[in-house]
Backbone:
């Protein structure tokens, strides 16, 4: 069997499973293992953060959102939690026991809680998209040629992963866990109730191409295990076009993968009942990636919005929504208008390894000037028999997606006045600085602080996933107020900015060191449920609700190419704000919901620009002043 059933995640997490897996063999070349995993043994185990210090850190983080009276109640509950011999101590001890018995006390729970057990549609709510630099295609031939070279780039990247020839990434001097790279290609999330299942096809030799809502299996290695030539892949793409135009558009079955997971799980069971469908589903499940060759869009401007819509939800008017299979970990999308990028199902990995794949492809892929060449294989159409029930489910999924898309605002922004270099030259952390710009933009737009989720990687630890950086702090609020105060002078403004950036950097450093608060609390609640212990009142306090109502869902996903990630907001009255800081520019992927009366993406976007402008202007003014 090429695929592995990874359902029992608590016993066999993906990363644990794959460490045990023998190396894949795709190439006829003698496989010489590189050093990608050579530092895995140096990775420490994720610590269980100390209870008292974590609770103190939490109490600091909730101050911007509570009145004095509310803070008194929160402190009282916190004292009860950390009291010697109390339930907090018991839960903490249980977590420490778990940490000694497992490679990573958190990862399996996180995989279940954040992903496989999360029931909202993966589209908008969970799967991020990444837009690559725009291409110019004269016609479908250019589109297909680019797509074929993109596939070749994916296969080259896969060879690096399989042969472990990538360098180990580091954070400072600390090596990072590289196993997430092993999880991104050939992985598939299948809908089940109450938990989805993850599959990983280690020895897969095919991709699946979606065209006009039809799905085709395309073999990409010859019988000796060598990658096909780009021109041979291209030939198969052309054959797909001819076949699809002859047979007509597909039944749009892929749109079911955009549904609520329980609904999709029911349709999936119904669909799988037919042997032919089952076979097609398995071929999709075991594919290395999905390649989506999209039909023309019905609206093509403004680019910053329509390309984002195409990549995240299949187009403003759902033109290409059925041309997707959103359970596949990686779907590359190549639109006729030159919009290219990917949509990725989040459960197996975080953004940075996906950005690594994308950077590699962005550098390597090009419009192939050579005509197609005969391939040893022909693409095979994956047929679906659609019964009445499934036909109705497709219609419902289409309507549900339309409501979601109609309500979603997206925008890809380039801030071109400066980037990381300027911020570093001021002696400030670029990430913390951008976070403060986001805080200021929110404060300026809403006249109040915005609780903010920023992703911190835990890949310094074996099997590490993420921790939350609580970017909104007392210092960030003081900075926002000072910056918006016309009476404050340059020195005060710059002083408040530096203090806020430093406070954020301190929190970041503790989060990446495995000493945040959110995953500890997640773990304490989870272990209480497992041990049949009542969850302490502390976890139901108002402070918990307001400080985790993340109106700002943010993340830095650094890419070398001018590419940017984006996703939907976390809460109905929030913003999604992902960024890629270049040396002299910053790319942002922004989102909000239209039906929220309080959010406004246009205002937020211009506030973000104003904030970045002003922060630079004051820093420059301050430095000129100090030189005088
Ligand atoms: N003065 C001058 N330079 C500074 C500085 C200062 N005070 N502070 C930091 N810098 C430099 C750093 O040395 C670094 O230099 P480099 O570009 O040569 O490596 C650079 O600025 C960037 O550092 P910084 O902006 O502080 O951020 P970071 O790179 O440490 O990243 C996180 C911080 C939180 C983004 C990172 O730790 C992380 O977790 N990334 C992954 C997030 C993730 O998983 N996202 C995906 C979610 S799907």
Residues:
């Amino acid at each position: 069997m090429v695929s592995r059933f990874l359902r029992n995640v608590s016993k066999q997490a993906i990363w644990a499973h794959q460490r045990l897996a023998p190396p894949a063999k795709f190439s006829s070349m003698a496989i010489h293992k590189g050093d990608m995993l050579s530092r895995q043994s140096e990775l420490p185990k994720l610590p269980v953060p100390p209870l008292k210090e974590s609770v103190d850190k939490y109490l600091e983080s909730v101050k911007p959102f509570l009145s004095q009276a509310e803070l008194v109640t929160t402190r009282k509950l916190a004292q009860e939690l950390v009291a010697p011999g109390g339930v907090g101590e018991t839960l903490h001890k249980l977590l420490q026991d778990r940490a000694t018995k497992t490679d990573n006390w958190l990862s399996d729970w996180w995989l279940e809680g954040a992903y496989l057990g999360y029931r909202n549609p993966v589209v908008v709510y969970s799967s991020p998209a990444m837009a690559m630099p725009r291409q110019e295609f004269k016609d479908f031939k250019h589109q297909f040629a680019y797509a074929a070279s993109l596939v070749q780039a994916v296969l080259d990247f896969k060879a690096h992963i399989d042969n472990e020839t990538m360098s180990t990434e580091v954070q400072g001097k600390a090596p990072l866990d590289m196993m997430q790279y092993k999880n991104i290609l050939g992985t598939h999330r299948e809908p089940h109730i109450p938990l989805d299942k993850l599959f990983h096809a280690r020895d897969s030799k095919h991709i699946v191409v979606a065209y006009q809502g039809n799905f085709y299996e395309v073999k990409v290695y010859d019988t000796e295990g060598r990658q096909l030539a780009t021109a041979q892949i291209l030939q198969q793409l052309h054959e797909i076009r001819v076949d699809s135009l002859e047979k007509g558009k597909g039944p749009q079955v892929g749109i079911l993968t955009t549904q609520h997971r329980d609904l999709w799980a029911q349709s999936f069971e119904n669909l799988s009942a037919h042997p032919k469908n089952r076979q097609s589903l398995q071929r999709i499940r075991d594919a290395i990636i999905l390649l989506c060759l999209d039909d023309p869009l019905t609206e093509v401007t403004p680019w910053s919005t329509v390309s984002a819509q195409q990549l995240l939800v299949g187009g403003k008017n759902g033109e290409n929504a059925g041309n997707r299979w959103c359970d596949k970990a990686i779907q590359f999308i190549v639109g006729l208008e030159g919009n290219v990028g990917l949509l990725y199902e989040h459960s197996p990995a975080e953004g940075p390894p996906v950005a690594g794949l994308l950077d590699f492809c962005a550098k390597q892929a090009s419009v192939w000037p050579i005509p197609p060449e005969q391939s040893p294989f022909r693409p095979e159409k994956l047929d679906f028999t659609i019964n009445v029930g499934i036909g109705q489910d497709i219609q419902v999924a289409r309507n549900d997606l339309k409501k979601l898309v109609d309500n979603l605002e997206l925008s890809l922004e380039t801030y071109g006045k400066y980037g990381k270099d300027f911020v570093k030259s001021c002696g400030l952390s670029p990430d913390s600085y951008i976070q403060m710009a986001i805080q200021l933009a929110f404060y300026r737009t809403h006249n109040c602080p915005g609780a903010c989720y920023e992703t911190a990687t835990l890949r310094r630890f074996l099997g590490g996933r993420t921790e939350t950086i609580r970017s909104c702090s007392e210092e960030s609020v003081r900075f926002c107020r000072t910056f918006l105060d016309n009476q404050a002078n340059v020195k005060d403004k710059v002083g408040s900015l530096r203090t806020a950036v430093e406070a954020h950097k301190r929190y970041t450093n503790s989060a990446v060191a495995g000493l945040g608060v959110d995953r500890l609390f997640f773990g304490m609640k989870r272990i209480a449920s497992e041990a049949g212990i009542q969850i302490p009142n502390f976890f139901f306090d108002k402070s918990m609700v307001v400080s985790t109502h993340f109106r700002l869902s943010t993340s830095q996903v650094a890419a070398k190419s001018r590419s940017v990630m984006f996703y939907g907001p976390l809460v109905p009255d929030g913003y999604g704000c992902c960024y890629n800081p270049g040396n002299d520019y910053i790319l942002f992927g922004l989102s909000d919901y239209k039906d929220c009366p309080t959010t406004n993406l246009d205002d937020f976007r211009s506030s973000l620009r104003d904030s970045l402008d002003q922060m630079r202007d004051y820093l420059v003014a301050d430095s000129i002043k100090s030189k005088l």
Summary: Confidence is low (pLDDT under 50) at residues 1-31. The chain is about 45% helix and 15% strand.
